[in-house]
Amino acid sequence: MSAVDHHLSEQSLDLLVLDGDGDDSRAARAHLETCAACRRQLDALRRSARHFDLHVRERTEEQVLAALERRAGRPPRRRRWDLMALGVAGAAVALVLVARVSPRHAELREADLRPKGGASLTVYRRHAGAVSVLADGARVNAGDSLRFTADPAGHPWLLVVSVDGGGHSTVYVPYGGSGSAPVDPARPFEDPGSITLDETPGPERIFALFSDHPLAAIDATRALAEIGRLGVEAIRSTRQLPVAAETQISLLLEK
């Protein structure tokens, strides 16, 4: 690879955002003096990290701690982890789950699932250390971690549920909850935790239910159970649940 084609690695950029020291960081800073592309990438990462610190961390710290306390009681089929469970310091977490996705996967923003002019759901996948945005019909693997973000577009309640190829239904947001989670209708929602996919093969369909009033999770899970009973083709083809949500968004995954 020629010097013209060489750019800093993701790890080197992460270290610079974290104000890392050492030979690698010094070499990276020297490279920035002659590479405008890497300077732009670093600026984008820093902007995303600042956005996380200003708009996400304070709002989600209490939820993250609560998730940690609840982890021991989670069912074995799905394992929920909080942001800090990535094994990286808080600022690095921002890079992995927020800053990293934005600049490096900006072209994937079109994969956001959004009715025209309405609410949206974005599902991030972490596989083998890489983060990407999932499109409808995407293939995933057991052990992949998924994280949900959404734009409520004026709706103050959100319920995210799914049914997998084994006919099992799960309430993802709020995780294991009995009803919709209250969200700020005017601000993006970012789930502070993520889920790890189990080994159940076949399709899994996720439904994001945005509403103006809280929905009972049991109504959604009963509908999901019926879909699961009808088999994998019903899971693949069903895009709406018979519940009183103002907006429904559905995402199909294949495992």
How does the SSE layout of this entry go?
Blueprint: H1 10-17, H2 23-32, H3 36-70, E1 79-82, H4 90-99, H5 101-104, E2 120-127, E3 130-133, E4 138-139, E5 145-151, E6 157-164, E7 169-173, E8 181-182, E9 189-190, E10 193-196, E11 203-211, H6 217-230, H7 232-237, E12 247-254
Parallel strand pairs: 4-12
Antiparallel strand pairs: 1-10, 2-3, 2-5, 5-9, 5-10, 6-7, 6-8, 6-11, 11-12
Helix pairs in contact: 1-2, 1-3, 3-4
- Topology-level CATH name of the largest domain: Immunoglobulin-like
The parts where pLDDT drops under 50 for at least 5 residues are 1-5, 74-111
N-to-C SSE string, H for helix and E for strand: HHHEHHEEEEEEEEEEHHE
State the end-to-end distance.
Answer: 36 Å
Considering DSSP H and I runs of 4 or more, what fraction of the residues is helical? 25-40%
- Counted up, domains total 2
Mean pLDDT comes to 76
- What value does the Rg take, in angstroms? 19 Å
The secondary structure category is alpha+beta
Sheet with the most strands? 6 strands, antiparallel
Give the overall silhouette.
elongated
In total, the number of strands is 12
Identify the CATH class of the largest domain: Mainly Beta
CATH architecture verdict of the largest domain: Sandwich
| Number of helices, counting only DSSP H or I runs of 4 residues or more | 7
